[in-house]
Amino acid sequence: MNQTETILDQIRDFADRAHGQQLRKYTPERYIVHPVRVMRLCQRVTDSLPVLASALLHDVLEDTATSEAEILEFLTPLMGTQEAEKTLKLVIELTDVYVTHNYPRLNRRARKTKEAQRMSEVSPQAQTVKYADIMDNSIEIATQDTPFAPVYLKESRSLIKVMTRGNPSLRTEALAVIKEALKSLHHTGR
Predict the structure, then answer these.
(1) What's the whole-model pTM score?
(2) Residue with the larger pLDDT of the pair 104 and 27
(3) Which domain holds residue 175?
(4) Counted domains in the chain
(5) Which terminal residue of the chain, N or C, has fewer Cβ atoms less than 10 Å from its own Cβ?
(6) Please, are residues 131 and 167 in contact by the beta-carbon 8 Å criterion?
């Protein structure tokens, strides 16, 4: 195992501990399976340690009690200050801002519109991770939550259309995954 793999394994374990007993919404799997799949999708197009680390950590700020300071404190001895700070910046970019808790007066459409505008302006690296996140979620939601899937898939397609700065091949693949998922829903009558 090389040094990068060792570091990524430690980051995966940190993210797993942060997510604690959380399970995936539609399966009895530990939550960490999703960030690992997102990281593996990203590995197909980049070997950037901050990008891969942020893929593993992309839901930690949003879905756990872990703070930015705790993430930085964990990452710095592993990666060095510069890469740790870059990773944290990506995780912050990947953390939804326009959520119900922060904007209770906005309906879902308004929050998603504002979030799409924000995501259109984040770094290409964060957009690349988001493409992978959407791909993994789209596959799971399309098969496990057919009533909600059309809403999620259409929102995701709109989001990817405005996120044009990430890896172009992963972006194209994410759009194809959404298109295929929508087509499969139409064939099942959903």
Answers:
(1) 0.96
(2) 104
(3) 3-187
(4) 1
(5) N
(6) yes
